[in-house]
Amino acid sequence: MKKKNFILRLISWLSAVYILFCLVITAWTSSYSVFAAEDFWHAVQIRNAGSAWNYMVMMYKEWQGSYTATFLEGLLSPLISGGFAKLRIIMIGCSVMFILSVYWLMYAVFHVQSRERREYCTVAAGGMLFLFLNYRAYPEVYTWFSAAMSYSVPLSFMCFGMGCYLRSNRGRLDTLYRILALVFGFLAAGGSLVVTGTALCLYMLVAVYYLVKNRKFSLWNTLIMAVMIGGAVLNAAAPGNFIHHDQIAQGFRPFGAFVTSYVIVVNELVSLIHSPVFQTVFLIGLTLGAALRIRHGDALARWSMLSIISVFIGFVTVYPLALGYGNSVVPNRCYFVIDSILCLVIINAIMCTGAWISYALRRSRLRIHILFAVLLGVSVVLNRDMFRTLPQSEDIRCLRSGAYAKYREDISLVYRTADDSSLNVVISSLPKAPDHINAFTLSANPESPMNVAVAEYYEIESIRVETLN
User: Of the candidates 458, 447, 411, 356, which has an alpha carbon nearest to the alpha carbon of residue 32?
Assistant: First the structure.
């Protein structure tokens, strides 16, 4: 038992160090965010609206129903006040909040399992972040203000809310956690519809789980679900959604969206499983699942049922995207939500598998656990070369070389040129952005929507780029 505890504590400490590493690298990268052309369009609309509330109402009627995202944009936009300094603080805060929300969700999940197993949440959170952050880079979310407000922040609200929802059904501060679950859930429902559908589905899954487990209705759980459904309907029924849909897609094809969702989710699952880091994460999950030492088959059966059902959450996440765009094109910011959910589903399924192996071979639990841990160590040693090609390794190289800082400095000169000029501005060329930074883009055509938005923001007649990269 002491050997087993030592192994788990070692993995837990290493996971804690890795989570801290994620916080530093992600926040540091986010600190070099620049304003994208769409940020200028939003800033012009906010300035015309006069207040965050008026902007939210206007966008609800004319563009999209994401009430949380649009209100936060109107309230916090650095282009309205604060500039680069405020942008840096906001983007660092968004990145840190997302990682902490993942940890909180894992903490709540293991607290529900057993108070003695709470320390395992560090390993689960570390494994999920290792798979998620090294499968693909997400520059549109970590270095783009508008996308962070619509995707990263609402998804963080969802994770915080889910954690509170789980704790509200088992904890000393039930009422406080219930209120927080309700508030965070309503805020999450006001993000992009990709986040809204995911949050509603997860909340519903938890409600059904406790209904089956306790065999009785909970007034609070029913109230929380009613608020979630109300928020989702409020978002989805916005007149702006239908106006926006008509501008970017042709026709309304709900059945075709099901097929497209299936293709996107299956392809993404296969791609995740074939990613370089999956083997290491797979062994982490098996080790952690075996360590849980679940003694009751019915508890494992409920866990397995939830694991199977949770696979469909991915389809719920993708469906609003497929329906809205009318094709299989997935923007990077949407992959952020899809991949985070699929990584959680994968980690959960692997841990459940490890728990079943431990349950079936319970007389040899210690040996099985040590075997998984040894295989994990061997995997890390044999695959050490892969660490050089991971997205986080690229971030480290760019941060150390000053590539991110140089791009921010170069693009600042473009902003100052537009701000200090009058009438018609011609930019000779735009600096090339590093791969993991969301780039500021302009067209050679001064009449393009983004060029017009930038010109309106700086109150000049026109702006264009002479040479496109």
Answer: 411
Q: Which of 387, 421, 439 is the last residue of a domain?
A: 387
3-state secondary structure of 88: helix
pTM of structure: 0.91
The dihedral built from the CA positions of residue 78, 84, 88 and 89, taken in this order, carries a sign that is negative
CA distance 101 to 74: 24
Taking the C-alpha atoms of residue 446 and residue 452, their distance in angstroms, rounded to an integer, is: 7
What are 170-204's pLDDT values in tens digits? Answer: 756 688 899 999 999 999 999 999 999 999 998 98
In our burial notation (b when 16+ CB lie closer than 10 A, e otherwise), range 110-130 reads: bbbbeeebbbbbbbbbbbbbb
Burial category of 392 from C-beta neighbours within 10 Å (exposed 0-12, middle 13-18, buried 19 and up): buried
Domain range for 146 is: 2-31+62-387
Element (H, E) at 279: helix 278-291
> Is 116 domain-assigned?
yes
Q: Is residue 170 part of a domain?
A: yes
pLDDT digits (tens, 9 = 90+) for 325-369: 666 778 899 999 999 999 888 888 888 888 887 777 765 555 565
Q: State how far the Cα of 155 lies from the Cα of 341, in Å rounded to an integer.
A: 10
